[in-house]
Amino acid sequence: MACISYVFKNLCMFLLVVAVASRSGTWKIFDVRKYGAKGDGKTDNVNQDAWINFQYIDNLIVTGHGTVDSQGSHSWSSTNFDMNRRLPANMAFDFVRKSRINGLISLNSKSEHLNFFCVYHFNISHVNLTAPRNSPNTDGIKIGMSSNVKIRDSHIGSGDDCIAILSGNTNFDIHNITCGPGHGISLGSLGKHKEEKNVEDITVRDTVFNGTSDGIRFKTWESSVAEITVSGFLYENIKMVDVRHPINIDQKYCPYPPCPKLGDSHVQIRNVTVKNIWGTSRNKVAVNLQCSKSFPCKDIQLIDINLTHNGSDGPATALCENVKGSARGKMFPPSCLNSACR
Ligand SMILES: *[C@@H]1O[C@H](CO)[C@@H](O)[C@H](O)[C@H]1NC(C)=O
Ligand SMILES: *[C@@H]1O[C@H](CO)[C@@H](O)[C@H](O)[C@H]1NC(C)=O
Ligand SMILES: *[C@@H]1O[C@H](CO)[C@@H](O)[C@H](O)[C@H]1NC(C)=O
Ligand SMILES: *[C@@H]1O[C@H](CO)[C@@H](O)[C@H](O)[C@H]1NC(C)=O
Ligand SMILES: *[C@@H]1O[C@H](CO)[C@@H](O)[C@H](O)[C@H]1NC(C)=O
Ligand SMILES: *[C@@H]1O[C@H](CO)[C@@H](O)[C@H](O)[C@H]1NC(C)=O
Ligand SMILES: *[C@@H]1O[C@H](CO)[C@@H](O)[C@H](O)[C@H]1NC(C)=O
Question: Any keyword Aminoacyl-tRNA synthetase (predicted)?
Fold first, then answer.
């Protein structure tokens, strides 16, 4: 069992102590200063893509409710922020299997709080990932090429996606998350790189989005080269509190316009069920289903939706583009889907 505690002093003058207990119960302290870190206020102590990185480990347990605070405000300020510069995540896990994080507070990351790549059988619970609304690129959890992942009982508030589900993920169960501020629990962005892989069997349930820009979100680049399929998504029992775009499939994703217009997204979205969703939409268009012209969304099912919009521009509406599917149960705003038989 590994138990980790962190002490960060200040941004440059930091001191980090990692204590690891083996199964026999003996503790080992790793003093990062012995590995080259300097707390002189000048040295850039990041050599890697994360402050703390775990690789090629089975049966890792990170616990103890310790705090990692990377005090990122300096790098978020508009004068210092550089979109093209890769800033370190608070923690990264690569090729880690049969492992879990239970209890961790991560604050003010410079980019994402937790990054996962090629993890299998990984449980994440009771984490609190917090960065302010205006902090760029501070995803809560960013994860790719992973399978059998459970994320539950956690609070994520950040300036970017609460959870970003990237290429090659299968079999996720995400539940009891409060997300806000942030950009929702998102598929993508996908489509940009040819080597991307399908994403399958993702469940998100019993979750609250509070004051976020998006809630349920799919984003694929408009001019995307990757021909992949995204399927088997279930979003169920979800409350929206003042969310700008509660349900949003955006296959013309372009965060920093103008984007090159080379053609339609080649990402096929299919078999997505959105069930029992209620609450308030800040925008009039509460349900936005804008799919690819070349690869229209298929088998999109809306069941029991009640999203209200309170504004001078009238009640909430739904928008459909290149999408096939069906709607049943309560349906506010009224569905724009035609019948599945079409
Ligand atoms: C993850 O949680 C499930 C139950 O929700 C449990 O069966 C499994 O053993 C856990 N895996 C790890 C690695 O903790
Ligand atoms: C998350 O941690 C922050 C900072 O410690 C704290 O202010 C906030 O109340 C915590 N949120 C939850 C839901 O525990
Ligand atoms: C949901 O997660 C919160 C922590 O964010 C926890 O306090 C609460 O007990 C969980 N609810 C359930 C039903 O497990
Ligand atoms: C939403 O967040 C605000 C603070 O930002 C809080 O006061 C409110 O209780 C939250 N609402 C829900 C339903 O969680
Ligand atoms: C659709 O996705 C669900 C998971 O959300 C899965 O159980 C079901 O088998 C899928 N249906 C088809 C026809 O692929
Ligand atoms: C939908 O939500 C509104 C506002 O919360 C509520 O007044 C209304 O009764 C709900 N409609 C249904 C059919 O549940
Ligand atoms: C709708 O907005 C108006 C003006 O902001 C406010 O007075 C009213 O309480 C709101 N109604 C609901 C149901 O939120």
Answer: no
Q: What are phi and psi of 121, to 5 degrees?
A: 50, 70
Domain definitions of the chain by residue range: 161-342
25-51 average pLDDT score: 81
- Ligand 2 neighbours, Cβ below 6 Å, are 105, 107, 128, 130, 155
Does the beta carbon of 308 sit less than 6 angstroms from any atom of ligand 6?
A: yes
| Residue 99, SS3 per DSSP | strand
Q: What are phi and psi of 80, to 5 degrees?
A: -100, -20
What's the rounded Cα separation, in Å, for the pair 47 and 55? Answer: 15
How does strand 27-31 pair with strand 17-21? Answer: antiparallel
Token digits of residue 266: 């080649």
pTM reported for the whole predicted model: 0.91
From the CA of 306, how far away is ligand 6's center (Å)? Answer: 6
CATH code for the domain defined by 161-342: 2.160.20.10
How many other C-beta atoms can be found within 10 angstroms of the C-beta atom of residue 55?
A: 12
Pairing of strands 323-332, 297-308: parallel
Cβ-Cβ contacts under 8 Å for 72 (sequence gap 6 or more): 87, 108, 109, 110, 111, 131, 135, 138
Interatomic CA distance for residues 165 and 150, integer angstroms: 13
Q: How many residues does the chain have?
A: 342
Q: Token pair of 44, please? A: 């850039």
pLDDT tens digits for range 52-93? 999 999 999 999 888 999 889 888 887 777 777 789 999 999
The closest residue, in CA terms, to atom 13 on ligand 5 is: 271
Of 97, 67, 189, the residue nearest 139 (C-alpha): 189
Burial class (CB in 10 A: 0-12, 13-18, 19+), 207: buried
Of 211, 191, 207, residue with least CA distance to 199:
191
